[in-house]
Amino acid sequence: MIVPGVLWTLIVFSIATWAILLIKGLQFARNRVENKRFQKVFWEAKSMEEGESISEKRPGTMASIARAGFAVVTGRDIAPKNQALAQKINRSDRLERSLRQQIQRERRSLEGGLAILASIGSTSPFIGLFGTVWGIMEALITIGETGEAGLDTVAGPIGHALIATGVGIAAAVPAVLVYNYFTRRLKLTVSLMDDFAHDFYSLAQQHAFQSQAPRPVAQEVSSPSPAMG
């Protein structure tokens, strides 16, 4: 029962690998399209208020980062009872921390399933080898008990046991390739999110970290008084 159990375990691993490939592929593709559409509309906004409205309506990781940034810019990130304490923290520092934390949240969401691929890729060959060793051991025990050591008696059980190693390698190779592919896609996505967060920070800095740009203070120029006649 050991060798069939190993084979079925490897088959389940292989099915899981292809399922994760499909799910993560759709997730990354959808996120890429959403981010492109969001950035195109967001950077065409004429004001911070319009940009905030766009980010509230759009899906995607970059829209989530923008929402986290606008929460700090508008002061919604602080509960009313903590307003006095929060004012001691520079708003630019709060914005930088909020953007960084949101990027980490989005990264953890995109990383879902990659640990499973890494585990499958690293353990499948050993599981297959375990099945092979167990099958060969059973074959040798049977040969010792029966005393029959002919080629027809040995080749069948040992050949059946070697299938486990082959299936283990067949399950591990796609898992490693898929893991490496999505790891590269994840690094690229995180890099794009970092770039967007940096641009958002610069935009907020231009508006003095407020939802509305500060109005310039008009300088009063005193006109000379007319001469008294």
From TrEMBL:
GO terms for biological process: protein import. GO terms for cellular component: plasma membrane. Keywords: Cell membrane, Membrane, Protein transport, Transmembrane, Transmembrane helix, Transport. Belongs to the exbB/tolQ family. This is MotA/TolQ/ExbB proton channel family protein. It holds the Pfam family MotA_ExbB. It is a multi-pass membrane protein. It is found in: Cell membrane; Membrane. The chain crosses the membrane at residues 6-26, 114-137, 157-182. Residues 87-194 form the MotA/TolQ/ExbB proton channel domain. It comes from the Bacteria. Coiled coil: none annotated.
